[in-house]
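Worked problem 6 (solution included).
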Amino acid sequence: MKASLTLMCSLVLLCLAMTSPAGAADVPQLINVQGKLTDAVGDPVTDGLYPVVFTIYTAASGGSVLWQEPDTVEASDGLFSIGLGENVTLPASLFDSTELWLGIKVHTDPEMTPRQRLTTAPYSFRSSGAAVGGGWADDGNIVRLETSTDSVGIGTASPSARLHVVESNGTAVQAFSNGGTGAAAGLYAYSDTWHAVLGINSNSNAAIMGRNDGSGPGIKGQNQGTGPAITGYASSGNLLELYNTPGPNLRFSISNDGYVQADSTIESTSGGFKFPDGTVQTTAASHTKVQSHFSFVTYKPGSGVIAYGMIQDDGTIKSGTGNFSCAWNATSDRYEITITGESYLCWDYATVVTPMASAPYIPVTNSISGKLIVYIFDSP
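Solution. The predicted structure is:
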């Protein structure tokens, strides 16, 4: 007896009935087909089991076979219902095609015509793992939250923001951009009423950390208005700490009371430095090394005074204890005194130098290679 098929309704994807946000493993990967088998004159076929082959094509006639499943339907008064994909999995990539057509062949009869076109509902099979529903809308290239009062919670059932992410054992949000052919931010934040990015941390780790493996900054702040580009608060710790790598080694810091410390030279390329009295210093006060006759007395703990004398401008000895020699080093602009039997080291001796000139010169002593070194500077 020849059978024919009359479809009772449009094809329906079972996962559309799933309104709760479940994972892909919880969503039936099936297409529900309901129909009625009749004989050649239109009467329902005898109740029983009938072998059927379902085939999905790329065209209404001809075309390529994308998927095929042999199955058995149970007819009652000709009516049957079956889920496609029970025996042969329906791949998500199947719905990449813009047009799909379902062919049905009962027992040994030829495949029925015309084929039935799969409409919109089965195509949502492709997004069954995305839990799209409720306030979500999928435009094809964009998935968006349509309902303005809805929020998204990841790791929390009570989001306090439009997007609230909670992670107790790792990175909560990670943003990456390879830049492409132009500038592209890994994370872009904008606010015209408050902070664009706010970091709060109750432990010893960074509230906000920026890293750049290229030539740009790890963190960059830009403000088009009147406020600061970057603001930092600290209840007791340093306001700012800058480190270099590898290490890390602290190179620059600003303490909570405003004390600035640098592990190198602080340079002003223009403007100079402003002092509490309001004056601005654009040039540093400097002294010049000069030649000047002077007297000196050297004391050694436990031995008393071991040498003293008067030295001329050119380094020659005018008078003294006779147990020392002196030379003027024109290259370094300094006097070098050697005391017989002593290897002079500045913190093992005490030396007083008195410049003998009308100008208020400033003497400075040091030690190099066992010698007493004397520098004479003019006044500012």
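Discussion: Helices lie at 120-123.
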